[in-house]
Amino acid sequence: MRFPAWSRAVCAQGTVKATAGAVNVPVVLGGQRVYPGDVVVADDDGVVVAARADVKHATSAAQARIEKEAVNRAAFARGELGLDRYGLRDRLGEFGIQYIGYNEYQRDTA
């Protein structure tokens, strides 16, 4: 998948043949505890761990986000601004921001 991976340390120590090791035990990856049966999903945007009991909820939430993002991308392709799509235009004054559109900018700088 070609997403980056990091390691805090490198250990060249070989495996131990005197013990059986451990399976089906929790491990910690990047500060996140992962239990046996958890689902780990990764893509170019990141990695998520879902507990086995939460997988159905996590997949339905992910599907809803995919659909929402598709609707937003279509709106942006039609020229709609995020400023309007997310209802921020009316709040600009609260943030001390004055929006100057392209046409206004062209008129004021001509």
Structural overview:
With about 110 residues, the protein is of the alpha+beta class. It folds into two domains: about 25-80, no CATH class; about 80-110, no CATH class. Helix content is about 30%, strand content about 15%. It has three helices and four strands; from the N terminus they run ββββααα. The chain has a two-stranded antiparallel ribbon. A two-stranded antiparallel ribbon has the order 3-4. A hairpin with a 2-residue loop joins β3 (about 40-45) and β4 (about 45-50). The protein is elongated, with a radius of gyration of 24 Å. The termini are far apart.
Features:
110 residues; alpha+beta; two-stranded antiparallel ribbon; two-stranded antiparallel sheet; 3 helices; 15% strand
Spans of at least 5 consecutive residues with low confidence: none
If you average the pLDDT, what whole number results? 86
What number of structural domains do the residues give?
2
Strand order, largest beta sheet? 1-2
* Strand percent estimate: 5-15%
> How many helical stretches?
3
For the biggest sheet, the summary is: 2 strands, antiparallel
- Cα gyration radius (Å): 24 Å
Helix/sheet category = alpha+beta
Distance between the ends: 50 Å
Order of helices and strands: EEEEHHH
- Relative helix content: 25-40%
Structural shape:
elongated
